[in-house]
Prior knowledge:
Layout: H1 2-16, E1 30-33, E2 36-43, E3 47-52, E4 57-61, H2 62-66, E5 70-72, E6 78-88, H3 93-106, E7 117-124, E8 127-137, H4 141-158
Amino acid sequence: PAILIVIVVAVIAFFLVPFLPRLPFVTGDMVKIKDVMGIVEAITAYQVVVRTFDGQTVFMPKAVVMTTAIRNYSAIPNRRIEMNVDIYASGDIERARALLLETMELNAKVLADPAPTVFVTGINGENASLLALCWVENADWFGTRDALWVAVAAAFADDDKVSMALPQMQISGSPYLEAK
């Protein structure tokens, strides 16, 4: 009888396990579930425990987790950095593109394959919008993105042919501005 019980349990497990719902992450993965982003600390039968980057512990019922979109940033080895940069259209757009490419290529954490690239995504009035893309190892994403933004700001500040466009507000024809 004991052998029969083992065989029945094995057959049930063999046929049932593939149909049981599984979470697309494990303990230690960096995830975003609903609006909570952090590291998965524990997975129990009833809840998922996530430690956010500001030190909070969030307990999420498994039923909620199973019915929402989940982003698992640890599931892939590489991650793309996107930088949207607005410059003044009167500046040298090709020079701005070259500065962005050079900044990404000089960073040791940026992967050579796929190669960094820059696209002009539009020109709207005084501004030209550029999209700079590069890939890094997943673990280096936050630090490299930070370093790239600092390097881009320095490169544009040191160049006299291009400058980053600053948000501006133009007020005209307002009765409140007229002298009384």
